[in-house]
Amino acid sequence: xxxxxxxxxxxxxxxxxxxxxxxxxxxxxxxxxxxxxxxxxxxxxxxxxxxxxxxxxxxxxxxxxxxxxxxxxxxxxxxxxxxxxxxxxxxxxxxxxxxxxxxxxxxxxxxxxxxxxxxxxxxxxxxxxxxxxxxxx
Length: 137
What we know:
This protein has helices spanning 2-30, 32-37, 61-80, 85-90, 103-122, 129-132. The chain is mainly α.
């Protein structure tokens, strides 16, 4: 088992050496300024340093600022009553109603409800829907 681990370590070190050579060659192609600016990682550090923890969700300060400005603009447009681009974006156009009931349908419903309540007042225990439905023929 120790031999297999030593072999794995040796192969990984060879790969790291190959990667270092490839990086050095690429830096030479870019020029001497890029080679001087790029750090060379020759020795691995004993323990990785812990930097700032990654944020999990939430909003950045810049995002909060943009949201705040957008909300201020929307409220200003609403209070001013303008119909400019910001007001149009803030308040979508009123949607037209879809569906609904026709005048004839409302009248039939009203008559059916009157019949049901009249039957209830008269003392009938249950009035079925079939009795109040419009007969088709």
